[in-house]
Amino acid sequence: MLSTEFSGNVIKRNKNLGLNEYKFLLKAIVSSGIGEETYGPKMVFKNQEENPTLESSISEMDEFFFDTITKLLSRSRVSPTEIDVLIVNVSMLTTIPSLSSRIINYFKMRDDVKTYNLTGMGCSASLISINIAQNIFKTRKNLYALVVCSESLTPNWYSGNDKSMILSNCLFRTGGCAMLLTNKPALRHKAMFKLKCLVRTHHGAKDEAYGCCVQKEDDRGFVGFHLDKTLPKAATRAFIDNLKEISPKILPLRELLRYTIISFIRKWSGQSSIKGSAKPVINFKMGVDHFCLHTGGKAVIDAIGKSLGLSEFDVEPARMTLHRFGNTSASSLWYVLGYMEAKKRLKKGDRVFMISFGAGFKCNSCLWEVTRNLEGEGNVWKECNIDTYPPKTLANPFLEKYGWIQSEDISTFKLPE
Question: Checking phi first, is residue 142 left (phi over 0); if not, alpha (psi -120 to 50) or beta?
């Protein structure tokens, strides 16, 4: 686990950092919403940040793949030979043979299994994978689809001093998930969720949106993930366009009419031109019971919660996931969903709204219906003593331990041994 003490040692090992970068990192980590029990790749514990190997990158994936998929298939009582479709998304690692091929080889799947190996899709990749399975299910009946989501941090740890690229080290953590989907009518009674609708929005044609999240080299040749200051604006625009399309699919007609009428009256009366006047807001709780939000950071959760008019109870699953596991990229949504399940919030008939963002720039969302009461058995949160969540405080101990850096002067500063 990446504790405060260990994280501080990792930062000290980077000889490319100075006082200004330390101050920036302290501010970023303290305000990130991430706790002390998140997970990092083994290469960080082996002091290999600047020279990670391909073997370490693949080992990081293998360890997750084989453990998680084995548990899923065992719990579902499904044999690897029954899998008809395999969809794997790991955005920042490409191998030959592919990662999907490694899974097929390890589990000895059938030679006619259909595989899809996604890269470069970012944090929104899991809903893209779900969409691929959804489209396949429309053309073929009685299938099992295995969807695997993770991210390889080993080859993507940034060792330079560009502030826009250091930030990714503060936010992203090791994790992943595997899901089993089916369109077999005979298994309806075993299903946990039913997909009601899914909407994908892609703003890649807009230069500002395209360039706000980019993997690149800095001026000194260090490879990392650049997060531009235009990211919030790009995310907001993609989010709004996505909501415009999915709202009519998930909200009752009376709520849509209410919003339309209030908006028309406000515009007709001239209130829309008055600065500071309250804008009408759609009440998504009229069609949604639970909100599964992207854990891109504390600011992301706060912004989505505010724009949707959500309560602290609504955003709690996302906050706790960020605090306990960090941003695990495409798999983060499923940790959030797992929190709801472990807390026994999900009851038959409930509707769960998922929202994710990813490089490109993309915003994807979908609506699930809970098909039976869920107790959270075998859930990852069970290992985290779920009854202690939410904790009394989410305060980050970094400020207490390293706050003295804020008062240091660059002309006299010397990092303690």
Answer: left
Q: Please identify which of the residues 14, 161, 323, 396 carries the catalytic annotation.
A: 323
Q: Which of 14, 89, 212, 294 is catalytic?
A: 294
> In the structure encoding, which two tokens stand for residue 58, read together?
């693949």
Query: Please, what is the end-to-end C-alpha distance for the chain in angstroms?
Result: 22
Active site residue 294: yes
Query: If residue 368 lies in a helix (H) or strand (E), which one and from where to where?
Result: strand 362-370
Out of 89, 123, 226, 242, pick the active-site residue. 123
Distance CA 102, CA 125 (A): 20
Paired with 327 in beta bridges are 172
By the 8 A CB rule, do 193 and 370 touch? yes
203 part of the active site = no
Tell me the β-bridge partners of 356.
364
**Count of other CB atoms within 10 angstroms of residue 285:** 17
Catalytic residue among 149, 156, 242, 290: 290
What is the predicted pLDDT for the residue at 399? 83
> Half-sphere exposure of residue 210, counting CA atoms within 13 Å on the CB side?
4
Instruction: From 355, 352, 350, 321, select the one nearest 126 (Cα to Cα).
Output: 355
Strand partners, 88: 117, 148
Residue with tokens 């769960």: 352
Alpha helices in 147-230 (DSSP H): 163-171, 207-210
Q: Is the separation of the CB atoms in 122 and 153 below 8 Å?
A: no
Q: Which two tokens stand for residue 199?
A: 């909407």
Angle separating helix axes 332-342 and 125-139, nearest 10 degrees: 80
Q: Confirm whether 202 is a catalytic residue.
A: yes
The verdict on whether 327 is a catalytic residue reads yes
Choosing from 183, 202, 212, 364, the catalytic residue is: 202
3-state secondary structure of 77: coil
226 labelled catalytic: no
User: What pTM, to 2 d.p., does this model score?
Assistant: 0.92
- Alpha-helical (H) ranges within 178-230 are 207-210
Name the catalytic one among 242, 327, 379, 396. 327
Pairing of strands 114-118, 85-90: parallel
Place 80 in a pLDDT band, splitting at 50, 70 and 90: very high
pLDDT in tens, 125-163: 999 999 999 999 999 999 999 999 999 999 989 999 999
Confidence of residue 280 (pLDDT cuts 50, 70, 90): confident
